[in-house]
Design a protein that fits this description.
single chain; Aspartate Aminotransferase, domain 1; Aspartate Aminotransferase, domain 2; 4 domains; 7-stranded mixed beta sheet; 18 strands; globular; binds pyridoxal-5'-phosphate; GST_C; translation elongation factor activity; EC 2.6.1.2; Alanine aminotransferase 2; Aminotransferase_I/II_large
Length: about 775
Amino acid sequence: MTSKYTYCRPAFFGFELCRIGGEGSPSGMAPKPLDYDSLNENVKKVAYAVRGELYLRASELQKEGKKIIFTNVGNPHALGQKPLTFPRQVIALCQAPFLLDDPNVGLLFPADAIDRAKHYLSLTSGGLGAYSDSRGLPGIRKEIAEFIGRRDGYPSDPELIYLTDGASKGVMQILNTIIRNENDGILVPVPQYPLYSATISLYGGSLVPYYLEEEANWGLDINHIRQSVAAARMKGICVRALVIINPGNPTGQCLSEANLRELLKFCFQENIVLLADEVYQQNIYQDERPFISARKILLDMGPPISTEVQLVSFHTVSKGYWGECGQRGGYFEMTNLPAKTVDEIYKVASVSLSPNVPGQIFLGLMVNPPKPGDISYLRFAAESNAILESLKRRAHIMTDGFNSCRNVVCNFTEGAMYSFPQIRLPPKAIEAAKRAGKAPDVFYCLKLVEATGISTVPGSGFGQKEGVFHLRTTILPAEEEMPAIMDSFKKFNDEFMEQYEDYRDLASRRSRVTDAMALVLHAGNTNKNSFKTLIAADYSGVQVELTKNFEMGVSNKTSITHLKADSPLYGSSRMDYAHIELMIDFALMEVDANISSWLYLRLGYMPYLAFAEESAISCLKRTLHVLNPHLAVNTFLVGHFVTLVDIIMTCNLYLGFSLIMLKSFTSEFPHAERYFWTMVNQPNFRKADSVPSVPSQKESQTKEAVKPKEVKKEPKQEAVKPKVQEVVEEEEEASKPNPKNPLDLLPPSKMILDEWYNDENTV
Ligand SMILES: Cc1ncc(COP(=O)(O)O)c(C=O)c1O
């Protein structure tokens, strides 16, 4: 066959010859430019898990009539969040300006919405139907600069603020400006939001991952970032930018001021531009780490860092209590970029003529909402607070729900809109996934959507460490539906684990060790102190079994156990060890002592005295008020993994959480609560049936806590003991006074202990 050649694009000697026709082309034609094989390879490389295989399967199931709960995208209105009234009133008037001339407009719209619509229309050159300046309307950029100035305490320059169709477009534009070729590296947190991996692929750069530490509540470790940079440089990659997502997506953590300082110093030392994705700055669900912008810390740090480090910060109307994803309003602000670069970015923005104008007005409204005294203020404040408060509650329901599931652990969602639980998949499930040709987390998530209709995103779409599996859900489903969603997740998960967990292996491993001399603990199977030994033994790889048919006072034996000095349960340094010792005292003297006093009064082991109960409760509250802020910023009590004190603390909290502390009590200490649920769901706490599952707090809310037991003498009955009582009785048996003690036979003392106790002179 003869081949024809035509001039196609500049190459060697000015032109490259392109062949038309020839073998391999069924029509005798060369592949067309938009045939799959001839596409830009970078386009083919782009992967976007948020709308990937799981999403497609969920959509298919929906078409087949199954109810699907789409928790895969942070798209609040799609999941039923109502728009805020004031901004929609303003936009409605801007879209239909003739309404402003209607004499009845004041009957339908409040005066401040009418004024605001007129104001924004006056900033445009021809209303919403006209292109604006390619950087956005100057009047709105000025309002954004004023907002940034109020937020950070440093003035901002509207000339350095560009408006975009959502933050994504801004991120893409800046990455396009930075990436020159495949040797340009962008440091991206892993797990990451796939906008970054996708855009870096699209523009042909290299993603340089830095791993967030799940055990440290998804904190970042600057040494790991250094190592990532060093490894990338060894491969000839020039690291040019560092991305932070604060609060994190999918990980939900908020960066501390110290973290931000370290990062900025690092960027200064390494000559790296910082890209601060701050789209979730309104979504904060705890008080310990409020949102602080990277720009504020940069400017706080003073020269040379404040004048040298280049920073681009991104924000949007898609998140926060606005959730106006479909309006596509976003902006970026540039700090320390030379004027010529800013001009180049302007030039490229001009190619798309103009960001969408309604989105720009939403931005104006977001940075300049109704103020106290405005007609619409109270309504606006009530609507926005209700959304944020509900998101906060949903974050707790999700975290607690995940942590109550078998083989699932989840850090608390401190901010943003996502929950990112780790699913500890048993080897049999991983093998089954392999056989099905799926990644293990994809396999799990597909089974989940098929069984429950809950559509999530497998963790591999965000990046995760080798052999570790997650899924991402949003916390956006309606609050009233949340408990049912979590129940159905739990049912699915626990059945999945039941199906794939290999009990035969576990049993044979146990019996092998038992044959090889298992140690026997002579204690009851409801005693919190036996749990401590069993869990510590599991962590240490020592086989300990509870004796069968244990009877208190008959088959109990005294034993002393101690961990070996080099046990990892003592932490990773001598300092850790010292902290562990200190905290063990705290767990015994402050946590155990107060929970026990409260419980024993209620169970009638001590004469019920209201003041004694009040005192135990207030001491316990004081203790939890100390514990709670510590756990807001730490996953574990000491260091970054489970240590002996976590085992002791959790077992000491166990009776409190399972028997006496109602949800209304514990919700005052959300981090202590999250900690407890995280710990009791650690595999070694559950393995060997160490800690029996704790009744859900949802249930205990509806029931009454343990009622004070009447101290009056009743005829002895052989009735079945309530479970609560059994657990505690067994524990207390040893410490209860022996009824045959001769001192019991003495007449009651004349000394009134209450009076003596309340005596002012008593120290
Ligand atoms: C971290 C992060 N950055 C940026 C975006 C994009 O937001 P926008 O809708 O403004 O494009 C998202 C959206 O989910 C996000 O999670």
